[in-house]
Amino acid sequence: MRRCAPSPWSPSREGRDGVLEGADQLEGRRREAAVVAVAKAGHPLVLSPADRLYLDMKYDLAAKPGQAWAGLAPVKRAYSWNPGAYLARVAESSVVGVEAALWTETIATRGDWKLMAFPRVLGLAELGWFPAGALDWTSYRVRLAAHGPRLDAQDIAYYQAPDVPWP
User: Fold this and answer.
1) How deeply is 121 buried, as exposed, middle or buried, from its count of CB atoms within 10 A (0-12, 13-18, 19+)?
2) Residue 140 and residue 146: Cα distance in Å, rounded?
3) DSSP H or E run through 47
4) 145 near 161, Cβ under 8 Å?
5) How many helices (H) and strands (E) does the chain have?
């Protein structure tokens, strides 16, 4: 592990000064102006935008289970973005990581949570580790397809995105 730090979610700070000193600030649903203020105060951000990394968001309109209040979060959308450039008024250096969240209001079974998490969490690992310029959907979708047999062998339910050449 590279570093450990307390990491409060933004709702835990509402009604106070907005930050926990010395902690990474996890940001998922706050208004952009509030996130910008936290970053400008010098606090590192871990981004978890609902429209990309909330794993309970549907892959497509027909998907079940899942929600769509933040929009759809297909596999390509969850992978193909630059966290450092996601918020125009936040310096790239303020963003220290990404995090996926899986809220369980609509997730009833272990199979459901696996289906909602996989394969998006595989892309999250690459998104959080590689520099932005190294991310490439065209090559990633081929690497992702290679995980299909591994997931099958482990009996992990996963969404078979139509734009991935699954074996």
Assistant:
1) middle
2) 10
3) strand 45-47
4) no
5) 7, 3
Task: Dump pLDDT digits (tens) for 98-110.
Answer: 989 888 888 889 9
Determine the Cα–Cα distance for residues 46 and 95; give it in Å rounded to an integer: 6
The predicted-structure confidence for 84-129, as pLDDT tens digits, reads as follows 999 889 999 999 889 898 888 888 899 999 999 999 999 999 999 9
Residue burial 7-43, b: 16+ Cβ < 10 Å; e: rest = bebbeebeeeebbbeeebbbbbebeeeebbebbeeeb
pTM value?
0.81
Q: At 37, which amino acid appears? A: A
Residue for token pair 């209001």: 105
Q: Which residue has the tokens 């497509």?
A: 60
